[in-house]
Design goal:
The protein is mainly beta. The protein contains one helix and 13 strands, in the order H-E-E-E-E-E-E-E-E-E-E-E-E-E. The chain is about 0% helix and about 65% strand. The protein starts with a helix and ends with a strand.
Length: about 270
Amino acid sequence: MGIGQSDLGIQRPVESKNTGFGYHLGFETKLYYTNNPASVDSGTLKESSGVWENTLRNHFLLGAFDLGGATFSPMISLNYTKFTHFGDELFDNFDFDSLGINFAGVFQFGQGWTIRPSLGLSFDLNPKEGLKRQYHQISPSLALGRQFKIGKAQSFIEWSLAKNFTDSAYVSIGVPDDKLDRFETALIWGVNIPFHNFEFSPYIRFGYTNYSNQDRDDFLTNLGLELKYSFSNWFYLKAFANFSSRQSDDDTYDFNRFDSGMGAALNAKF
């Protein structure tokens, strides 16, 4: 199980549209090096690899509603990502596609405070077996966040809670399909620092995970840096580096991982 399946990822606050409806369409491609694509502590799979990641994002903003002292903005997101590994034949069977569907509502209050309940569905598909489902999860979650300015920089902090109900298609005999059911909570802080056409964005995230069907607790740390150059409001290039670490009370699940690479994105708003 890679980090993408074991971690909620970066849960940043969403800026909702002030009035009316909207549609955001985006495509991002990333090419990066990882020193630990299998996210393992040791063994034959602890080898470096290249990853080519392509994501198509769709965000449907369903208006903004004045609740008196707060606004409510419902939205639906539909994302599809392809992960392709290269550079080492060990990872020929690691390629997978991921489909994510998310239903969320953003409550915005004064002084930059937000509350975001959501329901996410994600599916990992095997492209070498006709997109056969190999894993899926349903994740109800709740996030509390705040955005604020530090000079010209825009900073945010967010605390989230989530429960993940899982189903793994490929498990050993005697292992339950829902072995990966878990409760997760995380705290993330980040800042976006603009200068000319550049934007520098560091972040740090701490997470805790408790597995319902295992005697296991995990502590996760994510550190990241991103440097983005915008050619226009619809096209940018970026360089990035991420460090991920998991410390578990079951030592077999410990790992450290470093990823670094470049990417490009196209975005459109309607």
